[in-house]
Amino acid sequence: MSDVMVEARGLTKHYGPVTAVENATFEVKRGEVVGFLGPNGAGKTTTMKILTCFIAPSDGSARVAGADIFEDPIAVREAIGYLPENTPLYTEMLVVEYLQFVARMRGLRGKQIDSRIRMVVEETSLGDVIGKSIGEISKGFRQRVGLAQALIHEPPVLILDEPMSGLDPNQAAEIRELIREIGRERTVILSTHNLAEVQVTCGRVLIISEGRLVADDTPEALAARGGKPRFIATLQKNGHSPSKLRDAFSSIESAQSVEGRVGTSANEVIVEVVPKGNQDLRADIFRAAVAADLVLLGLEQHGEDLEDIFRQLTTGNSEASS
Amino acid sequence: MKHILTIGGRQFRSYFNGPVAYIVICIVMLTLGFFFWKTFFLFGRASGREMFRWLGLILVFALPALTMGLIAEEKRTGTIELLITMPVTEAQVILGKFLGVFGLYAVLLALTIFYPLSVSTLGDLDWGPVIGGYVGLLLQGSAILAIGLMASSWTGNQLIALFVALTLSVFFWVLDKFLPLLPTNAASVLEWLSFDHHFQSMARGVIDLRDVLFFFSVTVFALALAFRALESRRWS
């Protein structure tokens, strides 16, 4: 079997007049953790539902672990562990009953069932709630039950739709750690609209906007895209107005724009300098500050971050799409 | 087959984790008891006829309450997505669901055996019609359950599923009740379509293959439509 575990070719899905996904083509290899990033309603969930064979695409096709979603949906489903959005579980069942049910549905038999349940319960730290009803446990635990059921048959591919939504920061950190752990040996596709999550968890990001794939790269490469640095100088105010402080830097030749604004504390002013090209202006800013007899409290260089790229790509601003 | 059993078993057990099964069982037993003993001493006959007459009617109203949530509730909560994305076919899901509710129905029928047993202690009970009656109830019940499952697969709202299933099951029961008012041709067609007509003939102790085939066909037809409804979500 090749290293490509998920392969989508021109996936398109129309719901009546609405196009949820348009011509999505991508590949995910073994051992990759890929994040689907996009605003709500961008088509992330639809793409995942197509890959898990819950719905069929209007056009295009996909293969998961070598099996075609049209020709052999059962083999596709066998290869996937799936956590749908909002973690739908049978709330009237006990955690252990539910995991037994899933294990049987996944074709495990006899002793395998107990040993696999023991393993996923340990992996997802469910030991304390195993005998409780799913309706009674916290959202964080429910999310882990969702992950446990997705892991129970040791699938080569995991598809997780918003695995961290609604969790508190501690729970999210635990789940993130777990996903990274899982992602070492398996292929993981997860969706989110949380940027910080993607930067920490995923090795690659697919940004989806209005049903179209607008970017496919590592988080670092994406953040560096567009790439224009900015320099942020923090100055002591000492009674000067922000505009006056700003003017002190307008003499810098290779500066394209200079902006001044009030800083976080009363006696600080922030001046933001954007160069014309990719020049490093830190020395110029320092000299200009000295020349104007200003006190420089801090000076930082910023690349464009993922958030900016995300906003540009998903609001139709094509500035960064080069 | 294992998948069908697994789905059916889960469904069957989940009935006992919620209130619906208990409520339906209680209501059926209480109304049956009320009507049965009310008329039993009136006729003074050791016969199961009256019991099956009432039970057939009570179940027409009670069974849709068991089926209403089968698919509709899974759609509402989203669990249908996890169920279907397991390595099962839609047909296995439908058959498993049917098996689960049919199992509960069998338990319900088993509980009513208390009535013919108590009658047999009071007089000389003819067991032929009793056996025929139970076979008839199982068959009529499977048709009503399949119709209810079909209604449940059409919607994500249990109450709508209940309403549709009730309407259909009452409709098929009531069909042969107005026959004298109708022209003969229409009357014979309606009589043939009536659940109660086929059921009553079995409750007399005569198990006719035509009656068996009738209920079997209705069951298969309704399950096929439920399958279509579940499958159609892929292409919507």
Helix proportion of chain B: over 70%
What are the secondary-structure elements of chain B, in order, as H or E? Answer: HHHHHHHHHHHH
Task: Sketch the topology of chain A as an H/E string, one letter per element.
Answer: EEEHEEHEHHHEHEHEEHEHEEHEH
> How is the CATH topology of the largest domain in chain A named?
Rossmann fold
Largest sheet of chain B: none
How far the N terminus sits from the C terminus of chain A, by CA atoms, comes to: 35 Å
Describe the biggest sheet of chain A? Answer: 6 strands, mixed
CA distance, first residue to last residue of chain B: 28 Å
Helix-and-strand structural type of chain B: mainly alpha
Beta-strand fraction estimate of chain B: under 5%
Q: What is the number of E strands of chain B? A: 0
The figure for the number of domains of chain B is: 1
The proportion of strand residues of chain A reads 25-35%
Question: Most extensive chain contact?
Answer: A-B, 30 and 25 residues
Radius of gyration of chain A in whole Å, from Cα?
Answer: 25 Å
CATH superfamily of the largest domain in chain A: P-loop containing nucleotide triphosphate hydrolases
Oligomer designation: heterodimer
Q: How are the strands ordered across the major sheet of chain A?
A: 6-7-8-3-9-10
Number of spatially distinct domains of chain A: 2
The overall pLDDT of chain B, averaged over residues, is 90
Give a quick set of tags describing it:
heterodimer; A: 322 residues; alpha/beta; Alpha-Beta Plaits; 29% strand; elongated; disordered C terminus; B: 236 residues; mainly alpha; 12 helices
